[in-house]
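Appendix B. Extra example for self-study. Work through it before the problem class; the solution is given directly after the inputs so you can check yourself.
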Amino acid sequence: MAMMRRKLVAGNWKMNGLVKDRDFPSALSDALDAEPRCDVLLCPPVTLLPLMSSHKPDWLQLGAQDCAPQASGAHTGDVSAAMLADLGCTHVIVGHSERRTDHRETNEVVKAKAQAALEVGLTPILCVGETLEERESGEAESVVVTQLLASLPRCAADKIVIAYEPVWAIGTGRTATPEDAQAMHAAIRAAWPGDDRDALRVVYGGSMNPGNADSLLNQPCIDGGLVGGASLKPQDFARIIQSAR
Ligand code: PEP
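Solution. Structure tokens for the complete assembly:
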């Protein structure tokens, strides 16, 4: 019998949010008419984590958008996974395509970051995804599976989350069709190098909004969403959360 995986809806605020936005968790609570039926995670910029961790509902988990691959030491400007855990984070995004592009993060670096997160008990949300060119040339699945296997640390399937984020869909208003996303999620699960693949959560990211969330989130292999722009508005984020059943 297929395992029921609890869905995860995670907001990625990227480089947005100031101290004045510290009360977003209460605004999100107010926008929801009932407690969420899925796991809910918010990844604000690191500057807001201490402010939000002391004032949030229990059902809301906090995560970061990146961590250093090293545990500590002379790495000016970096934030370690242990520092994030110390602030109450449960998750950290690693290998987002914006970091792979802006900071030239390689699969090896992403793998080291995911490993550093696992070592302190954080759940890495490991992002993979193809470019438009790769999709149009019919290589999407092989590109994504290759990227996944090269950035994946050795771990149990329930200790990590994979985010399938087609690069052409991030922040563009274009989304993968539910059928294409479902097919890619099934391919990712099939490629998981262990016999515990039923426990692996694979979430979709790329212009998810209140209008398309329902059809994406209710595909059998789509275990939640990683939401950028729409997570900045409490009403929109709440509607996406309510779409996850
Ligand atoms: C993201 O940053 O992970 C993302 C999916 O962004 P958006 O929802 O804005 O496309």
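Self-check: Residues 125 and 161 are 5 Å apart (CA to CA). If your reasoning did not lead you there, revisit section 3.
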